[in-house]
Structures are given as C-alpha cells and as structure tokens.
Amino acid sequence: MPTRKIITIDEEKCDGCGLCLPACPEGALAVVDGKARLVKESYCDGLGACLGECPKGALTIEEREAEAYDAEGVIAHLRRQSPELLARHLEHLRAHGLEAPEPLPAGGLTCSCQELAWAAAEAPESAASSGADAPELPSELRQWPVQLHLVSPAAPYFKDAELLVAADCVPVACAGFHRDFLRGRAVVIGCPKFDDVAAYREKLRRIFLEARPRAVLVTYMEVPCCYGLVHLVKEALAAAGGEIPVETAVVGIRGAVREWRREAPAGYGARAAGAGP
Questions:
Q1: Strand partners, 7
Q2: What is the pTM of this model?
Q3: Is residue 68 located within the same domain as residue 142?
Q4: Contacts 24+ apart (CB under 8 A), 94-97
Q5: What's the rounded Cα separation, in Å, for the pair 257 and 254?
Q6: Domain range for residue 203?
Q7: Which of 4, 7, 36 is nearest to 22 (CA)?
Q8: How far apart are CA 94 and CA 262, in angstroms?
Q9: Distance of CA 11 to CAs 16, 38, 42, 57, 59, Å?
Q10: Count of domains in the chain?
C-alpha cells in the first residue's frame, strides 16, 4: 500500500455528533456504533474538507500506509449511495486543482417551476383519497417550493411567520407531520448529510435577516448526522442577529416524536427551556 495523507479519527474525542459527515464531499465518513468512521480508506482523498467541522477536534490528517485513493470508486459510490453529493464532489476536485472525471451541468441545478416560486395557497387543500374507503386528509402546506435551495428569502410567506426547518426524512417517517409540525407554519426542508451545508447556512441566514420569522421549529431524525440541521440553524441565527424563539423536535425512525424542547442559541433571547408545544 502507498504512504499518503488520510483522515484519522480519535475515537476517545469523537462523540458521534455527525457534523463531519456533510462536510465530506466524497461520502467517506459514517457514524457507526456512535463514532465517526471511514467508510473505506480509498474513498478519502486526504484533503481534509471535514477538519473544521468537528467541535471536539477528533479529526486530523496523518501520513501513513493506506489504500490508494480511488477516484472512480468514489464516483461509483456517490452515484449509488448519495447522488446529491456528486456535483459538490466534482467542484471540490476542481477547487484543489485536480481533474474532475466528468463535466458539471451548466448553471447547476435549477427548478423548472419558476411560476410557482412564490406560490402561496389561500387555504390548505384536501389531499386526494388513496382508496374508495379512505378518508380525505387535509394538507397543511400553504406555499411552494419547500426545498431550501429553491426558496427565496424574500418570499412573502416567510415574513413574520412561524418557520419550520425540517430534515427531509421527517415527513416520510412521521405520519402526523402535517398535523403536528406543518400546520400554521412556513416550511423549508433539506438534508444536512448530503446537501450543500454552506449554501444552506447562507440561505437560512438571509431568511432570518430579511424575513424575521417570529419563531423557528427544527425537526430532525434521531440518527446522529441529522442533528447537523440544528447546528446549521443556530449558526445562521447567530450570523443574522436578533431575538427569536427556537424549538427542536426529534423524530424516531419509526415515526414517534422522541423529544420536543425549546432552545436558546448563543446570542439569542429564546424562551426559557420547557417541554412540548
């Protein structure tokens, strides 16, 4: 095996928070048994994109014998496991003066539904019945789009609203998502593991700065890497300045709400800690 630079994880320092995962453009990290670990040595390019994200200082770069970096293997891994990361990985290679194996789409990802960019419903619509005997369930969605990359911070539905920031797995896992979380709130969704974390942080900062929502609820899955969404919201709030109540709700992988609490990010005058809504 060649001697090269590669990430090293100090398991004694690592608390399994998962904040390093979205920072790795190769998808080379995973939380296993409560600790961050390399998925495969050949997926780590040794450039250290994840280093600044660990609050415990558990990540370092060392030079040692390791499997050679497998550029083609990383591409195959990302296409199979997390295609959302592929464009970011190629941009990462170019930023370090390395050859990217395929061209990026011109202009990046765009939404063809521009006419819906600021759409806001007068009232929730009833969802179509899924069967002859199934009751119609009302949708609490009052806007479009909802994906954090696509929304505009200047959209009127954010102004002085109660804002829901949801990990995109939560609506799938939680049967009561519309009733328990979405009702009466503007919403943005995203994945803190696979999406562009820096872009998310900036978009949230602009929403907080320009729209000044009056309250924020962050819903995320109980898996460790998903807490990164709370971390992003706190960073964006601190960067925007001001005061706003913040709540977080943790959803189990079988859909149960594990915990609902009020938080006060540094520099913010959120409500005192307490239970549930």
A1: 61
A2: 0.55
A3: no
A4: 96/47
A5: 9
A6: 114-263
A7: 36
A8: 42
A9: 9, 12, 20, 11, 9
A10: 2
Residue pLDDT, tens place only, 59-118? 999 999 999 998 888 888 877 766 666 777 777 777 766 666 654 443 333 333 333 334
The CATH number of the domain where 70 resides is what? 3.30.70.20
Residue type, 58: A
Residue 164 tokens read as: 């829901």
Query: pLDDT for 180-207, tens place per residue?
Result: 999 999 999 999 887 788 888 899 999 9
Distance, in Å, from the CA atom of 228 to the CA atom of 241, rounded to the nearest integer, reads 20
123 lies in the same domain as 259: yes
CA-to-CA separations, 159 to 114, 185, 206, 233, 239, in angstroms, rounded = 20, 11, 12, 17, 18
Is the separation of the CB atoms in 59 and 20 below 8 Å?
A: yes
Of 46, 65, 95, the last residue of a domain is 95
In this structure, the answer to whether residues 89 and 133 fall within a common structural domain is: no
Q: Is the dihedral of CA 202, 203, 208, 214 positive or negative?
A: negative
Convert 242-268 to b/e letters by CB count within 10 Å (16 or more is b): eebbbbbbbbeeeeebeebebbbbeeb
Check whether residue 90 and residue 120 sit in a common domain. no
